[in-house]
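Researcher: Re-running this chain for the archive, since the previous output was lost when a drive failed. Same request as before.
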Amino acid sequence: MLIDTRKLIDIKHITVDITDNTPYLYFLFHIDETTPRYSFDTHTYVPDPNGPFVVDEGMDVFQQKKRLLKYIGQTNGRSIHRLIEHYHSSYYDNKRLNQSTNGDTHGIGPVFTHARIMKIPRFIYDVVRIHHETILVRKFLPEINKNSSSVFGDIQKIILLNSKGKVSLQELVYPYLLHARDIWKAAEAYKREDWEWVKANCVVSNQYRHLTIEELKSGKYSFGENFWMGKTRGTFLDQQPGKKKQFSRWFRSAIVFKHNKQYHARKQFARTLSKYRKLYGDNHINQLNLFHEETELHSETYE
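Model: Regenerated structure tokens:
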């Protein structure tokens, strides 16, 4: 990936309009004096210590390359707050100290020198920015994004090593097939409390498909596709039975996991991964351990 540093912001010189609450996507890079630079001359890119272009070599699940792109994230307008939080909270140092009350890790540590902040059109439900982040993370697989999009377990690495090119990296990436229009349709159904749309577009268990709107609102039924909270153990004030869920909460459980596109793609992914494990995985654990030993001196650690 070719990166034009003129479009990046040095983190030592960031300015921000605190009145602007537009949703953002942000990209964090590590670029220093040792990073090779290039300029564009006569229809080609040539090495130039003062050139404006740098190159990120892309996905590298074995961490043998020095990547420039470190992290992709999103925020609802608190961009400077998020960047400060990322820089001064290290995921690697102390997980307990850097977790919020709901267990989410906030920071990644001071592993970046530049940022690019991109505004996206405001959607009535800002979960759309999470949608764009999800697609970008799956495309570029930054090494520090700690989620199912970009983290490869040992079994995926074993499959890649032993398939000798027969299995592509993208085949082992957890599936995400939703389109922005799917989010819009889901948001409209959520606003209308359109249970018929949910039943037509999501995988709803037969025991719940017959329920009426009144029964759904009663708080007696706790399942992801329901617009309203159900009765659960340890209920908090914001989770009272019968209270309508926040869109982001409903969207994650009803659409990300139960939309027809997602549900069937996940089942196919599980079958494919199981097949590849049998062909290339389960009998080759020692090979990955050997690979780790051979590349240990080349792997980077972040302090």
